[in-house]
Predict the structure of Acyltransferase.
Amino acid sequence: MRTLDHDEFLAMRRFPALDGLRAIAATIVILFHFAGPKWSWLSGWVGVYIFFVLSGFLITTLLLREQDRTGRISLSAFYLRRVFRILPPYLVILGGIVVFVWLRGEFFTREFPHALKYYLTFFNEFFPASSPNGPDNFFSGSWTLGIEEKFYLFWPFLLVVAGAAGLAAAWRKFALAFAAFALMAGLVGVTSGWVLNGPQAPIYRSTVHYAILLIGCVLAIAMHYRRSYAVIKPLTHPLAAIPVFGAFAALHVNMESLWWETGSNLGLLIAYGLLSAMLLVVLVSPGPLRWLLATKVMRFVGERSYSLYLLQGPVHFVVVAAIPPLGEHRMISALTVFAVGLGIADLIHRWVEQPMIVTGKKLIARRQEHKALRAAEAELKKPEAVEAPSGAR
């Protein structure tokens, strides 16, 4: 047993165990919504913060590696990748819900003309406050997408501003990430209140979510550069998984009770984000936990977790309409929603998500080819330099 070398980490092109972590996060969110109070100890609601830390880590890692490989971050390529990755499943699921409620004659009674103003502009997290007592529209769980889309919009640009290479650029990235984290954490009192256990509507728009995303960003920066990686390297030893997973699991299963009893909820979420980041280090490193979460079953669910997460609301409605006894929140209800949702998510993954990701990659490749061709043509058009006679020097 040994630690993971920095060069080995940089050589990794995929982190399959992180798909397994996505699978767990999506599953516990569904259990939180539909399994009933007996399973509240699973603290499924906090699963969205696993997604946030993962997003911050993966996006920043990809951008830093692109910067090392090409000398720059292509914002246009990044935004195109995000558009072709995020929008197709999102619009297919949202469109399916709209058609469904329209056919049922509920388009207006479920306030979709109002809701779509938020859902189509990715201000999803502001919708609950705009309609606190409104009817269920089956898509309220998409508030996390509003948070992530704004993160995708601004964070890559800030990394470009921080500079491309060298030790100074590395420290600027750290300073930028820490400053952004401090700002987002400092604004929690303004955006939602410090305690975070009041009405739910303000919590959706809280800047604490961006602070948790930035924890993943800081981890990615630390693991990318050799000097800072040396500080993290002990966590890559297989034996480190025992205390890290133990601490993470202990906080996770007690999160529900601590949330209502301590009054220190901002600290709890930040602690959860930090332990989630430490767990990511364990999961990219060799060991039994990485093996377990990288199994085919876990990766299958994880690769479909995005659509599965968005589908839970409408699938639950249809399941209950088909089998009314499943309207009672209990484990069989949650497992049925999970199974049906995963089946539909698989179809979306195969027929929408994957083809559109490939289309996006082809479009980016064509743009890069055209750009390279234009650069070559411009180089050929430059007049050749004429050497001056020696006597004129």
Q: What stands out?
A: The radius of gyration is 23 Å. The mean pLDDT is 92.
